[in-house]
Write a structure and sequence with these properties.
Blueprint: E1 2-3, E2 7-11, H1 17-26, H2 33-42, E3 48-52, E4 55-65, E5 69-77, H3 86-97, E6 103-108, H4 110-118, E7 122-132, E8 146-148, H5 154-165, H6 170-179, E9 185-189, E10 192-200, E11 206-213, H7 216-228, E12 235-239, H8 244-253, E13 256-267, E14 278-280
Parallel strand pairs: 5-6, 11-12
Antiparallel strand pairs: 1-2, 2-3, 3-4, 4-5, 6-13, 7-12, 7-13, 8-9, 9-10, 10-11, 11-14
Length: about 290
């Protein structure tokens, strides 16, 4: 706990979730209260708020992936309190909470990267958020090899994700499936699961991701099926640019670039995963 005359940085509590949602909505971010609840319950010990005169005016979350890697996100400070060291103190609390982890990671905007550079984070790779007002059903024929993710698929999906992301994150797979079960899909090839997709509802658009697959054709099939379930709503995908055919296909549907992100890490990076199988990330909140 960090304290001075006017600002208190303290552990987040359940009653702070509405304030977190208020801050993210004020910043134009996509998270709903359900996302805040998921992040808080995934690791309460890593979530903090900055409070001024009894009002929450800053937040940060940190997920602990089994002591191997920690993930920092939801760094938000009210405009009136910026450039007063509040963000640095929130970051210090999150880093300390993840101090036992071998690596700490986050996804930064170009503006945020300047702050994280000074804190010892280094670049890993880049990706970009693409959005579209709606995906027309005619653009998204559903492949017969894609089906809803069932309870019996979870162990296989978690294992695939662990190999491709680099560490196990069952909490994300199960949590996202619960948040938006209609977007939880698997693709089968030769009787085995060769990829999966998840998604979430949002304040401004439906977020499709992660999309993880053995190859680009499987990634497209999963994405088509997920897009077909968005019911004409705005859609966002945080996509890696490693496969030109994937990127060009998204653009052909009408997706356009919104903003870039830089994946960064602090300390070692012993669990880089296999990015060529990551076609869309789960989101900056969880990697």
């Amino acid at each position: 706990m960090i304290d001075n005359d006017t600002i208190l940085v303290r552990p987040m509590a359940e009653q702070d979730l509405d304030a977190g949602a208020r801050l993210s909505q004020g910043a134009g971010w996509n998270q709903r209260r359900a996302d805040w609840a998921f992040l808080y319950r995934a690791n309460p010990a890593g979530c903090f708020v900055a409070e001024r005169n009894g009002r929450v005016a800053g937040t940060v979350t940190a997920i602990d992936y089994g002591g191997k890697s920690g993930w920092i996100a939801m760094m938000l400070v009210e405009p009136s309190m910026r450039r007063q060291g509040v963000g640095s103190r929130l970051m210090a609390a999150a880093v300390e909470a993840l101090g036992h982890c071998e690596s700490i990671k986050l996804d930064a905007t170009p503006a945020g990267k300047k702050v994280y550079d000074r804190l010892g984070f280094v670049d890993e790779y880049q990706f970009c958020r693409l959005t579209i007002p709606s995906v027309h059903p005619g653009d998204s024929p559903v492949s017969q090899r894609v089906r809803p993710m069932g309870d019996g698929d979870l162990d296989a999906v978690v294992a695939l994700d662990a190999g491709w992301f680099g560490i196990e994150r069952r909490v994300v797979i199960e949590g996202f499936r619960a948040l938006a079960p209609e977007y939880a899909l698997v693709a089968e090839e030769a009787g085995a699961i060769a990829g999966f997709a998840l998604g979430r509802h949002g304040e401004h658009f439906e977020q499709i991701g992660p999309v993880m697959a053995a190859g680009v054709d499987t990634a497209k099939a999963l994405a088509r099926a997920a897009f077909a379930r968005t019911a004409g709503k705005p859609v966002a995908v945080d996509a890696l640019e490693h496969t030109l055919a994937w990127w060009k296909w998204l653009e052909s549907l009408g997706f356009t670039k919104q903003r870039p992100f830089i994946r960064m890490y602090r300390g070692a990076n012993p669990y880089p995963g296999t990015p060529r199988h990551i076609f869309a990330i789960a989101g900056p909140e969880v990697g």
